[in-house]
Specification:
The structure holds two protein chains of two kinds. Helix content of chain A is 33%, strand content 27%. By secondary structure, chain A is α/β, with parallel strands linked by helices. Chain A has a six-stranded mixed sheet, sandwiched between helices. A four-stranded antiparallel sheet of chain A has the order 11-12-10-13, sandwiched between helices. Chain A has a three-stranded antiparallel sheet with strand order 2-1-4, covered by helices on one side. The longest helix of chain A is centred in the middle third of the chain and has 17 residues, at 172-188. Chain B is mainly α. Chain B has one domain (9-255). In chain B, 77% of the residues lie in helices and 2% in strands. Chain B is built from six helices and two strands. Chain B has helices at residues 14-65, 74-103, 108-144, 162-213, 216-225, 233-255; strands at 2-3, 9-10. Chain B starts with a strand and ends in a 10-residue tail after the last helix. The chains are: A alpha/beta, B mainly alpha. Chain B: Keywords: Membrane, Transmembrane, Transmembrane helix. Chain B: The chain crosses the membrane at residues 46-64, 84-104, 116-141, 161-179, 191-213, 233-254. Chain A: This is ABC transporter ATP-binding protein. Chain A: GO terms for molecular function: ATP binding; ATP hydrolysis activity.
């Protein structure tokens, strides 16, 4: 008996996907959304509340069907598809568990169904997050339930693993322990990871690609480097900075005494960079959060 | 990779690999869900049997002491209530399983099939226990010189007809479980109002199996009310099979494309 061969990481493609809840067709949850997730990457899915992130992820995980459009996971329609469903793990907030029985029963269920389930990793993470296996999921605190979801997502070793706001209720040490465990396991066992989060500052360091969703549509889908290149931060003497940024689109301003830091939307050309350097200004990368706030405030790039 | 007759490695086509993986995944999820639902129901079922046996014992003791014992206690109190217990568990169990099942990579299709399998497993095991208890009671009654006859059962006269008693309980338990499962899933899919309206069609298999077997508190008066004559085993089994298929199909219809809401607690 040999261990089952691990499938290659799954890619995802959504083309012109539309979905409305109930009869509210004027405000669809997804409004012609198209996006691609490259196999073998960690992709951040960002968006404001109600932007359509959770709905898009539930379509990818075959939790529901779209009203129109195409959803492809590893090149196949995922709905009731035993191949793609067995290879996709969606963790919604605290994870889907059997709430009325012990935590170990839910983990046992996942272990039975998930062909590549890593019981050792699950046990280590349960210890790390101090989850009591004898309790029922509904008796755990919000943070522990979220940690349980993180355990399920990581131990599943699914070719496509999706974490939808799995950090809710987790304290900072637990969140960082989760991020570290995710990166470590991803490095050892490459797969496709999609991470939806509002804590952009915390997670942007682990993203390779970023998709920003707003009002059911994709505003931006690029590599993190490319996204960061869409803006620049300028730090220096306040007067010099203000003079330099005049005429540019300013995303954010910070001032401390005589020093200012301004975030601009749009890349600087070589001449502008040389000018800034000559003026004693320091150029830096733009925090993803600033770009996200700018893009989802109603303005378009 | 596989090996040919010469021992050389031959690549397995991608589609063949995926087809094999699909089959394996379906079988794994069917087996896991059926086992989980059957064991989960039996874990509570043990308490059910213990409690109804205690109640039957108390009733029997009182009837003997007051000299009003006029037939089987087991048949009414124990066997008669098993189907209602399974009806309630049928509402709860697949509903509690579907979100974790799909989140763990199982299809709705495998959950539907596992629910069908569970219906048969629970029907067989509960019927076996009910028939065995009825038989033990029949032996005790005979030994004590008490009348073991049943006043409500119609297909069998007493617990000594253990095969027929088993058959009756098998169909009742399986159909009631599936009808409960359809009703629970109806609420999950259609919401409060839609689920309530759907109760009537989902109960039709229950009506059919009660009419076919004409046993217990409801079946016989019900059948007499609609003018049916005494049941025969063959026609009862045919009616039971139709009810079973109808209940299974109803559960398939309501579950096959249901949207999976997140588990909240």
């Amino acid at each position: 008996m040999t261990a089952p061969t691990r499938p290659d990481p799954f890619g995802v493609e959504l083309r012109d996907v539309t979905l409305s809840f109930g009869k509210d067709e004027k405000h669809p949850a997804l409004d012609g959304l198209s996006l691609t997730v490259r196999p073998g990457t960690i992709t951040g899915l960002l968006g404001r509340n109600g932007a359509g992130k959770t709905t898009a992820l539930s379509l990818i995980a075959a939790m529901r069907r779209p009203d129109a459009g195409t959803v492809l996971v590893d090149g196949e329609d995922p709905f009731e598809n035993a191949w793609t469903m067995a290879g996709t793990q969606l963790v919604r907030e605290s994870g889907d568990t059997i709430t009325s029985t012990k935590v170990k029963d839910s983990l046992g269920y996942y272990a039975e169904l998930r062909e590549h389930w890593d019981a050792d990793l699950a046990a280590r993470l349960v210890d790390l997050f101090e989850i009591d296996l004898r309790k029922t999921p509904e008796s755990l605190s919000r943070g522990k339930r979220s940690a349980l979801g993180a355990v399920i997502g990581l131990a599943s070793r699914a070719p496509l693993t999706i974490f939808d706001e799995v950090y809710l209720g987790m304290d900072a040490p637990s969140r960082y322990a989760f991020y570290d465990a995710l990166v470590e396991d991803y490095t050892e066992h490459p797969r496709t990871v999609v991470l939806s989060s509002h804590l952009i500052d915390e997670v942007e360091r682990i993203f390779e690609d970023v998709v920003i969703v707003d009002r059911g549509r994709v505003l931006l889908a690029e590599s993190v480097e490319s996204v960061r290149g869409r803006g620049v931060s300028i730090t220096g003497s306040a007067a010099v900075v203000e003079q330099f940024v005049d005429g540019h689109r300013v995303l954010a301003r910070q001032r401390l005494g005589g020093t200012a830091q301004v975030t601009l939307f749009g890349a600087l050309d070589d001449a502008q960079r040389a000018e800034a350097t000559a003026a004693g200004l320091e150029l830096g990368a733009v925090p993803l959060q600033d770009l996200f706030v700018h893009l989802t405030r109603g303005e378009q790039p | 990779m596989t090996e040919n007759l010469a021992g050389q490695a031959v690549p397995v086509p991608r589609e063949a690999q995926r087809a094999a993986a699909r089959r394996a995944a379906e079988q794994r999820s069917l087996r896991t869900a059926a086992w989980s639902m059957s064991v989960g129901t039996w874990q509570i079922g043990v308490w059910f049997w213990a409690i109804v046996l205690i109640i039957a014992g108390i009733i029997g003791y009182v009837e003997v002491r007051t000299d009003i014992l006029d037939g089987s206690v087991i048949d009414g109190v124990v066997s008669g209530s098993a189907k209602f217990f399974l009806f309630v568990m049928g509402i709860i169990t697949p509903l509690a399983s579907i979100a974790v099942h799909v989140a763990a990579g199982g299809t709705r299709r495998s959950l539907i099939r596992s629910t069908w399998c569970t219906a048969v497993v629970l029907g067989l095991t509960f019927a076996l226990v009910a028939a065995a208890l009825g038989y033990v009671e029949w032996l005790v009654f005979r030994a004590q010189g008490w009348s073991p006859e049943l006043d409500r059962a119609q297909l069998y006269a007493d617990g000594g007809q253990v095969g027929t008693a088993f058959l009756v309980q098998l169909f009742f338990c399986s159909v009631y479980w599936l009808a409960g499962a359809s009703i629970g899933m109806g609420y999950y899919r259609l919401g409060v109002w839609g689920g309530t309206f759907a109760i009537v069609p989902f109960l039709l298999p229950v009506v059919l199996v009660e009419l076919a077997f004409q046993s217990g508190y409801f079946g016989r008066p019900f059948a007499q009310a609609v003018g049916l004559s005494d049941a025969q085993v063959l026609t009862a089994v045919i009616g039971g099979l139709v009810a079973l298929v109808a209940a299974a199909f109803a559960f398939h219809l309501v579950t096959r494309s249901v949207a999976i809401a997140p588990v909240t607690s």
